[in-house]
Hints:
This protein is mainly alpha-helical. The protein has one domain (5-141): Alpha/Beta hydrolase fold, catalytic domain (Rossmann fold). The chain is 45% helix and 8% strand. It has helices at residues 5-10, 30-38, 49-64, 86-96, 119-141; strands spanning 73-78, 101-106. Strand 1 (73-78), helix 4 and strand 2 (101-106) form a beta-alpha-beta unit. The protein is globular and about 60 Å long.
Amino acid sequence: xxGNPQFEALLTMDPLPDVPxxxxxxxxxxxxxxxxxxxxxxxxxxxxxxxxxxxxAGARKVQxxxxxxxxxxxxxHGEGDVLAPLxxxxxAMNRIRGTRIEEHVYPGAQHEVLNEINKDEVLNDVVGFLRxxxxxxxxxxxx
Length: 143
């Protein structure tokens, strides 16, 4: 279906363990984890049961729905992401992918690919995808 089996296993526990996200698993750039840990606007406590239930209910809804068809889709993922493991995410994307998908898996990158040590590469890929999608849209609408 997609998701993180370790997170899903938490739903069987009562009470949920108090295991907040370790900031070091977000990015290979230590400054990203430090900023995350220092940000008072970020919730740093453990996951709540309702949040987990909503995440997995959403994943089930996506699994039950149609694929992306001909919608231009960009899928970017960090190879080293332990929050949303690549193998599980790939399974989910294989289920919902459409005919116009562009994929980028960044070697060694962790969860926050837009805040990784290769963020310029990632942002260039995003901009390139958007430009290509807009160009294709313009060409499709030009008589």
